Amino acid sequence: MRVHTCKQIDGEGLRMEGLITEKCLCRKFVSLAVAADYILDGSALGVVLSVEPVEQKNRCRICENDDRLKKTCDNCGKTGYTTEIRLDVKRGEDIYMRPVKRTPRTATIEAKHIGYAFDTASLRGKRNSNRAKKRIDNYHVLDRMMLVELGAELIDMKTGEVLIKGTSEPPDDAKTASGRKHDWGRAI
Q1: Whole-number Å distance between alpha carbons of 16 and 30
Q2: DSSP of 33-91, one letter per residue?
Q3: Element containing residue 139 per DSSP (H, E)
């Protein structure tokens, strides 16, 4: 089976995704089993050969063809049925690879990243990685900025200067249930 990766399969503007209208130069072929695996995991679909609009008569969602309700139903025009136009898509044997949609990644540091950054003997060939060091530094900056948003002070570690003044804790007061000793968490 031919695997299409050409530009015309992209659903740009009013074009339907997977519709191939012109002759293409895609040369990759895969077996039927591999193509079935691609289709099952959602990374590929069959190319679209034709699309035809078809009228479909459905029971009205508002009155559900009930004699008492359809007398006043404006959705179906007092008939009890609505007509909807759906697209009848005929797919061919060739497949096309769908665009990959990745979930957003969060900034995390795992044990391997620390090993890459700080010369661990168990990780051969990836010692003293500058990318891993930058990843750790970026995570540190993100962590500090998140704490500042929550009200912490930002202090320069070299000079001891307060860069961003934080919010102080409220004083301990049992009557208002505020402060470190008396605030046990309450619904807002």
Answers
A1: 24
A2: HHHHHHHHTTSEEEEEEEEEEEEEEEE-TTTTT-HHHHTS-TTTTSSSEEEEEEEEEEE
A3: helix 130-149
Tokens 């990759």 belong to which residue? 28
pLDDT by residue (tens digit) across 93-136?
Answer: 888 887 666 666 666 777 777 777 776 555 555 566 777 788 88
Amino acid identity, position 163: L
Of 8, 33, 17, 13, which Cα lies nearest the Cα of 91? 17
Using CA atoms of 16, 18, 19, 24 in order, give the dihedral in degrees to the nearest 10: 140
Residue with tokens 């619904």: 187
**Half-sphere exposure of residue 188, counting CA atoms within 13 Å on the CB side?**
0
User: Three-state DSSP class for 111?
Assistant: helix
Distance, CA of 180 to CA of 167 (rounded, Å): 14
* Residue 66 tokens, joined: 């009930």
Q: Which token pair is 100?
A: 């990959």
pTM above 0.85, yes or no: no
Give the residue extent of every domain in the chain: 2-97, 111-164
